[in-house]
Amino acid sequence: MRLLIMIFMLAAALAGHSQQSWIRINQMGYRPGDVKTAVLVTKGRGSFPGFSLIEQATGQEVYQGVCKKYGAYGPFVGSWRLDFSSVKAKGLFYLKAGDVQSTAFRIDENVYAGSADFILQYMRQQRSGYNPFLKDSCHRQDGFIVYHRDKTKDSTYLDVSGGWHDASDYLQYLPTSANATYQMLFAYLKNPASFSDHYDAFGNRGGNHIPDIIDEAKWGLDWLVKMNPAAATYYNQLADDRDHAGLRLPTKDSVRYSLRHGWARPVYFISGKPQGEKYKNKTRGVASSAGKFASAFALGAMVMQPFYPDFSEDLARRAYDAYQFGKKYPGNTQTLSVKAPYIYAEDNYVDDMELAALSLFQLSGDDRYLDEGIQYARQEPVTPWMGADSANHYQWYPFVNLGHYWGAQLDNARRNEYISFIKKGIDSVVKRGAQNPFQVGVPFIWCSNNLVVGILTQIRLYKELTGDARYDEAEAALRDWLFGCNNWGTSMICDLPEKGVAPKDPHSAFTHLYNYKISGGLVDGPVYGSIWKKLIGIKLYAPDEFHDFQSDLVVYHDDFGDYSTNEPTMDGTASLSYYLSAMQTNADAASATRDDAGAIIKMNARQKKIYLLFSAHEYADGAELVLNTLKRYQVKGSFFLTGDFLRQPALVPFVKRAIREGHYIGSHSDKHLLYADWEKRGVLLVSKDSFQTDLSAGLQALEAAGVRVGKWYLPPYEWYNEDIVNWCGENGLQVINFTPGLGTNADYTWPELPNYKSSDEIFDRLFDIEKRSGLAGSLILIHLGTDPRRKDKFYNKMGRMIEKLQAAGYQLERLP
Known about the structure:
Elements: H1 2-20, E1 21-24, E2 37-42, E3 50-55, E4 61-70, E5 78-83, E6 91-97, E7 100-101, E8 105-107, H2 115-118, H3 120-125, E9 129-131, E10 136-138, E11 144-146, E12 172-173, H4 174-190, H5 212-226, E13 235-238, E14 266-269, H6 287-304, H7 309-328, H8 350-364, H9 368-379, H10 402-410, H11 415-433, H12 448-466, H13 472-482, H14 509-514, E15 527-528, H15 529-532, E16 554-555, H16 570-590, E17 593-594, E18 600-602, E19 609-616, H17 623-632, E20 638-641, H18 643-646, H19 652-660, E21 664-667, H20 688-704, E22 712-713, H21 722-730, E23 734-735, H22 759-773, E24 779-783, H23 798-807, E25 811-813
C-alpha cells in the first residue's frame, strides 16, 4: 500500500510539473558561438537537477546539463537556469527537464538575419505628413506656435509637418525624435552592411540606391530642421494629450485644438522656463533639447554627406548653433501635458551636451570639444537609472549615453576614464539582476524594455572597446529577455518572430480598429504591479492569456487596453537598430567563406552584397578619383593602407576625407613586407617578432592618422599563410583577401609583365563571372594607384562597374 501511495505521489508531482512548469527560451534562436541559456520556472513543487538538449528531427539527446537553482521569482515558487553554451552544432532543438519541454528553437549563425531591417517597418508606419503604410497624408496643417518668447508670434503658423508619431497616439516630441534619429544614424555608421535598400525616400516599396535606414533617418532630420526654423529658435513638442480624444487613424483626425486654426496642432517653443497650466512641467533650461538637436545634426552631417552633400552642410551649421545655444542656457526641458499628469520628465542634460560636444569633434577635429566633452561626462559618469529601483517617466533620457562610447573612441588621453564610466553603469545593472533567474537588473518602470535595449547597447559597445568578454552572459540574458526568455514567454517586438509568441494585440488604433499589423514595434514592456494598479484608464479587452504569470512584482499584458506595457514606441524601436544590426553583421561574417589558411575570401553569399576593397602602399594616383566616384554613386568602400602610405604628408587630406565620408580604413602592414615565399607558401620570410613589429607599427600609424583600429587586416601583396592568419588572430585581427578568380587585382600589372591584363580584359572577366555564377558576397580588390608604366588605369572604369553592379541588383557595402 505504501509503495502504491508513493507511486501515486510521484505521478502527481510529475503531472504538476507538466502543468505548472515552463522552460523559457529565446524564440529567435541562438548563434553557435554565443552564450546560450534558458530558464525553467515552476508554480508547483519539485526539483529539476538536470536537463537535456534534444535534436528535433531525430529525437536524439545531444547534450546533458545541470540546472542551476535560483529561488522564487514573481509568480514562480522555483526557478533554474539551463546553460548549453558549449553546444556549437547547428539545427533545430528543444530542451527537456523531467517532463517539462520547451518549444523548438534554432541554433544557427543567421537567426537574426533581416531583423535590423524588420523593425524599420514600424518606423515607416509611424510617419507623419505622408504615411507610406496608409498611402495617404496626415497632419498637413501643423502647426500653430505657443509659448514663443515673442508673444506676437504666438498662434501664428509654422510648418512642422513630418517626422514620426511618438507612439500609438499622434503626439510628436523633439527628445524622442532626435534620439531615434541619432540611434539610426549610429547603427548605419557602425554596421552599414546590415541594411538593405527596398524602399524609397518616402517609404514606398522600391529601392533608391540609398539604404532604407538612411531614408528613415533623413525623415527624422527633415523634421528636426523644421523644428529649428532659425538660429536660437527651437521647438520641443507638437500636439499634446488632448490628442487622445477618440480612437482613429492619423489620416482620420478628429481633434481640433482651436477653431480658428483648423486642423493645425500646437507646436511648443523651447523657452527654458516651466510650461503648462494644471500640470506645469519642471523645465529649467534648454540644454537637454539643444544637445539632442546638436548631436543629431552633427552625426547627420557626417553620415548624409555622400548621399545629400548640400543638406549635410546645412546640418553642420545647425549643429554648431544648437550646441552654443545649449551652452548658453544649461538645464533641462520637459514635455507638456494638459489633461493628465503624464509627461517626459527629463531631469538631466549633461549627457546630451557630452554627446553633442564629441559629435562636433568628429565633425570639426577641434580639440576644445574633447575638453568640453569630458567636463560634461564627469558630471554624470553613470546614467542615473542604472542600478536604481525606480525613476520617473523618462527622467534619465536617453537611456544610454553614447557620448561615453565616443569619448573612449576619440579621446585617447581620457579613454580609460570613459571606459570606467561605461563599466560602472554595466556593473550596477548586472549586480541588481544577479539574484533573479532571468538576470535582468533594470527597474520595471514605464518603458522598461527601452532600458533593456539601453544596457544591451552599452554592454556590446564596452566589449567592442575593450575586448573584455566578462559580460557575455549578462548580454545574452538581456537579449533573451526581449525575445521570450521572460516570465510570460513572449517576445517584446511585434511579430518578431512571426510564428512565435509576440505582441499581436498592442495598444494601437491600427490593430484594434482595422487589424493592420504593426510589425517591428518594440512595446513598452513589463511594469511593477504597484505602478500598473495606479494608472488611469487601464482596461483589458480580452481574457488575459498571461494570467498565470502576473504578480505583484511585475505585470505584462498583450492587450490593447494596457497602454502601460503593450504600447509600441518609436524611440524604443529605433534604439534597437544598432544592436540588431550588430547581431546581423556578425552573422554575415560568420557565414563567410574562408581559404585554407583561415582568411575570409567571401562574405555571406546568400545576400546580394559586394564589398569594394582598395589597397595602397607606394602609389596613390587614383585616390581622389576613387573617393569622388564612391561619393557620386553613394557607395562606401574599405581602404587598406600601409604605415608608409599614411605617413606621407601629401596624403593626409585623402585619409581625413575618407574618414569623414564614412569609409572603412584598415591596415595593410607598415612596410609592405613579403611574409611568405611566392613558390612555397608555407615557408615564412619573416619571424614572428619582425611580423609583430611591422604589424604594430602599421596599426600605430592608423591611430596617429585618427583611425580607430577595426577587426580586418589585408596582408601586403595579399599573400600569407596559416601562421600569419593565426598571428593576426592573436592581435584581435581577422585576415581578409579578395575573392579568388575575379581578376581585378591584376590592375597593378603593366604591359611588359607576362601576366598583364588590360582594363577592358579585367572588366569583361568580372562580368563574365557575374553572368555565369553571380558575385554575391564577393570582395573586389582595386589598387588606389599603380606603377607609372601602366597607363590604362582600371580605377577609371569604376563608375561604369558600379553602375552595372547596381543595375544587376547588388548593394555595394563597406566592411562591417
